[in-house]
Amino acid sequence: MGFAYFPHTGDDIKAMLGRIGLESLDELYSDVPEDLLFRGDFDIPDAMSEMEVRRHFAGLAEKNVSLSVFCGAGAYDHYSPSVIPAVISRSEFLTSYTPYQAEVSQGTLRYIFEFQSMMTRLTGLDCSNASMYDGPTSAAEAVMMAVNCTKKKNRVLLSGTLLPQVLEVVETYCRFHGICLTEIPHRDGVSDLDAITAELGKGDVAGVLVPGINRFGIIEDLTGYAEAVHAARALLIVYSDPSSLAVIRTPGEWGADIACGDAQTLGIPLNFGGPYIGFLCCRQEYVRKLPGRIVGETVDTDGRRCYVLTLQAREQHIRREKATSNICSNQSLMALYVTVYLSLMGPEGLKKVNDLSYGGAHYLHDELLGTGLFTEAFGKPFLKEFVLKSRLPAKQLQKSLLDAGIFGALSCGDDLVSFCVTENRTKEEIDRVVNAVIRCHIDRCRDIVNGNLMK
Amino acid sequence: MKYYDKLIFELSKEGRTGFSLPDTEWADTTDRIPAGLRRELPPDLPQVSEPDVVRHYVNLSNMNFGVDTGFYPLGSCTMKYNPKINEEMASYPGFGGLHPLQPDDTVQGALSIYGELSDWLCSLTGMAAFTLNPFAGAHGELTGLMIMRSYHISRGDLKRTKVIVPDSAHGTNPASAAVCGLQVVQVKSTPDGVIDIGDLKPLLDDTVAGIMMTNPNTLGLFETGIKEIETSVHAAGGLLYYDGANMNALLGKVRPGDMGFDIMHLNLHKTFSTPHGGGGPGAGPVGVAERLSRLLPSPVVRKSEKTGKYETAGNPTGAGRISGFMGNFGVLMKACAYILSLGNRNIRKVGPYSVLAANYVKESLKDLYKLPVSTLCKHEFVFDGLKEANAGDPEREVTTLDIAKRLLDYGFHAPTIYFPLLFHQSIMIEPTETESKETLDAFVAAMRTIAEEAVSDPGLLRSAPHNTPVRRPDETLAATHPKLKI
Question: Which of A188, A443, B224, B451 makes the best surface tag, with the fewest CB within 10 Å?
């Protein structure tokens, strides 16, 4: 019986085997030792028609609960314009490979060039690569790059205010790569410049990684960092949310040498954690140490402007074990998401996204404080994400919110809980959060009273 | 394909917008952020309308060649057809809005996809457990090597820091080993194109962590000595890593686990039909043998025997964490849809049909192109340039690059060229199981015409391509005067 993806008829197979001089398909594996040929049944389902595949996924979708998302922590529910899926689904983009053959890949090469241009304009740095896997792996690559840029030094300082998953991924890469890490605990919710300066004084530090906006949502004041780091001949790396860079001070303005982070915030849906897209930007002097693909402008034999993968002497397919990284692909299609998104948004739209998120987050923040059930944790400036000290146990709070169809109040250790508000959340939804919090408190009081009565 | 010369920045005009956002209902805006924390000037992003954006990117797409455009025989890349139902399922309502940190109870559908796909991949490869967290093939290699190193370290066997890599290996193999802090030792190939076991055996001492292999290798040849290699490496205390880049040849016929491999990765964007997207996102799941399953990176997904529900957890005994969340989930959904569509019946035909196509093309061209190894190939094979290439004549010599560029004129994507490094004029051709005999015949005809042109009009090849949106780019200019942004 035929199958939709296989064009072979019986006659085709016979004719093709004939050309090869074989009688049967089995003979194509005559070079494989007999006992290595798999003869059993695979433990996978029987073939499904399209209708059955749809039903299968419909069944799975029913097992998910759609929630109103008030959580960030590295994945943000920003609005994604309808133009994006329309462009992304162009199969000339979707079904192409890495643009090795520049003559028939100008579409991909051009949007990556646009992506690189946009990322440098957002971060305030000179150069960008074509993208990385995700934020945490971009941080790991940035740390390895810093060590690679500063010869003979092999220690990197990490601020304890970075997202936990960023710390864990950087720690994993560095443990195997042989880079020493020192995590500097936060002071009052922000990176500790005094402690960092003290460590820099030891003279063996290649780089310092700090967040622009940290795991508590606080916009870090990085005044004095570049001076301290550069005085110790180390590199400053800032882990940034690029959406926020429309309004907050950029890594370039802070004097950073490298910027990295996750550009999921630029039009990419939550999608249960992926695919997202990491980015990596740097100052001009370090461009030849930048890992990953880079697209550059040139001309063709007729003198027409065109684009190619360039500076490939850094890369694995040329340098093998001496490459700047093992990275082979980028997240090209996700770079197209970002490029289309930023084209639509422009400076004004991106500012408005931040304004709406800021306004909603500060409204929720103030309303929650108004319940009397929370107090300020650090009282520092934030954008769309914040933490509060909660009088209600995080677990119970999260449960009450879930009962109201809300995902929020992520526990941040001790009695701290975090919330995030994007432009995708309406006032009505935010008010529902506040009501659910009050409901949680009432239920808790009732439980306590009932418990007491039962005694 | 038509040349189109604009960059989106060049369509920009002050005051145009392409966004649609609600009016604010909040009193506060970001202007209230302390001035010292705000950026000075707004970013200089394009200001364009929505129709401008759509037309610009559609025009760009018209300069691109994809699998949906035509035959894409790119060796080692497995450019098979990307089924449309996969795309539809990956954007199925009820998944796109899920936050990766939502409680397990609220994402049972998503976790089922992760759990079931892991189980299916185990069955198809003969491995005991999979992590689907790695984002790409090279990322899978790195993860696999981290597991390899962790295994030796966990046994207190700290000397094992060398990894053996064949000279025919993909560049990512040695690069991944280096990132993982391992030293690379190269093992030679025999004139027949397989691993030289005589060269391998002396390398196997107590400092060897393991060997990385593709099987079939990058010449498209089945490593017939695999059993002896397996016994020798294991006897020396090393592990065997399987680079799944070439798994398409074996899908449904031979399982890496049965060949004795301890760790492997798959490229879902090759073997399991998810689109390459111009260079990503892909997915590089890593499978391991039972005794290594405790070393899989965090987070892990498992099914609770008590409740029958899927749970996520950190893995305190694992190699660490290699991804922010649980991999390129959207890509996993596509691979899931692919396996469901093929089922047990059709998945067995993937390998044989891909091998049939490769041998058919090889046999149809070997009279005109140099075939260094003439035995049965698997899913791909390598020519070492043309037989009649006017070699030595600086005015008329035709190289592999010229052949590749001329193929573009005939409406085909070029094969992989100058890889593997074993030959000077490598042309690596991988047709897949989704190409019809007619398509293969048309490709063969074009390759034969090119062979004739090489003799009759070599200038035509040396200046190719002629019919593409742009012609050969000046790569030296790009590298010596890098212009990386506008």
Answer: A188
Does residue B340 share a domain with residue B402? no
* B142 chain-A contacts, CB cut-off 8 A: 326
Mean pLDDT of chain B: 96
B286 touches chain A (CB under 8 A): no
Question: B76: nearest CA in chain A?
Answer: A97
| Cβ under 8 Å to B: A residues 221-280 | 221, 223, 245-250, 253, 262, 269-276
pTM value surpassing 0.95: yes
Give per-residue pLDDT as tens, B380-392. Answer: 999 999 999 999 9
Spatial distance between the Cα atoms of A419 and B31, rounded to a whole number of angstroms: 21
DSSP string, A387-399: EEEESS-HHHHHH
For residue B106, the enclosing domain spans 84-347
Nearest partner of B329 among B117, B88, B102, judged by Cα: B117
The one-character DSSP state at A87 is H
Interchain contact, B22 vs A25, CB within 8 Å: no
Q: Does the structural domain A83-342 have CATH classification 1.10.3660.10?
A: no
Q: Is the ipTM of this complex over 0.90?
A: yes
The alpha carbons of chain B give a radius of gyration, in whole angstroms, of 25
Tokens 């004129």, residue located: B409
Is residue A122 less than 8 Å (CB to CB) from chain B?
A: yes
Beta carbons of B352 and B336 less than 8 angstroms apart: no
Any idea what the CATH number is for the domain that residue B376 is in?
Answer: 3.90.1150.10
Q: Chain A contact for B198, CB < 8 A?
A: no
Average pLDDT over residues B207-217: 97
- Report, as an integer, the average pLDDT of A168-192: 97
CA dist A392 and A394 (Å) reads 6
Q: Nearest CA of chain A to the CA of B325: how many Å?
A: 5
Q: B-contacting residues of A 179-218, CB under 8 Å?
A: none
CB-based contacts of A168: which residues, under 8 Å, 6+ apart? A136, B298, B320, B321
- Tens digits of residue pLDDT in A324-378: 788 887 899 999 999 999 999 999 999 999 999 999 999 999 999 999 999 999 9
* B317 token code pair: 């005994």
> What band does A447 get if pLDDT is binned at 50, 70 and 90?
confident
| Inter-chain CB proximity A94 and B277 less than 8 Å | yes
pLDDT of residue A239: 98
Decide if B424 is inside a domain. Answer: yes
Contact A410, A71 (CB under 8 A): yes
Q: Chain-centre distance of CA A37, in angstroms?
A: 41
Query: What pLDDT, in 10s, does the model give residues B289-340?
Result: 999 999 999 999 999 999 999 999 999 999 999 999 999 999 999 999 999 9
Token pair for residue B460?
Answer: 């035509």
CA separation (Å) from A441 to A260, A369, A396, B129, B141? Answer: 41, 14, 9, 44, 50
Give B27-53 as a DSSP string: S--GGGS-GGGB-SS--------HHHH
- Burial category of B235 from C-beta neighbours within 10 Å (exposed 0-12, middle 13-18, buried 19 and up): exposed
Q: What is the pLDDT of residue A452?
A: 61
A8 contacts in chain B (CB < 8 Å)? 353, 356, 436-437
**Which amino acid, B321?**
R
Q: What is the mean pLDDT of residues B204-221?
A: 96
CATH of A68-76+346-449, one of 3.40.50.11030, 3.90.1150.10, 3.10.580.10, 3.50.50.60: 3.90.1150.10
Question: What pLDDT is stored for residue A455 in this prediction?
Answer: 42
